[in-house]
Amino acid sequence: xxxxxxxxxxxxAGRNVVTIAKSKKFRDRHGKILLEGQRLxxxxxxxxxxxxxxFFSTKDHLKDLPLAKLKQAQLIKVKFEDIKMWSDLVTPQxxxxxxxxxxxxx
Length: 106
Known about the structure:
Blueprint: E1 4-5, H1 7-21, H2 24-30, E2 32-36, H3 38-46, E3 51-56, E4 74-77, H4 80-86, E5 95-100
Parallel strand pairs: 1-4, 3-4
Antiparallel strand pairs: 2-5, 3-5
């Protein structure tokens, strides 16, 4: 089983992390990308993207992801209302990930 952050602590910490990560200036400066949704995150993991933090509203959102590739990520369970507030999608899927930006090959 993967270690999951406690909800009480994560709601406060998570709100700051996602708000900061949604800033393009922050992402560019720190080499991060923000991905939303099960399929996009699963595809990113399969292609070798490095997850740092995953916010999810239910454990079911994690079941179809390659768990071995999530071991280095911080997993944070939050309320779906928080994900709706953070999401740019019309219908949020309950899963948001912060990944290291892949280096472009030169």
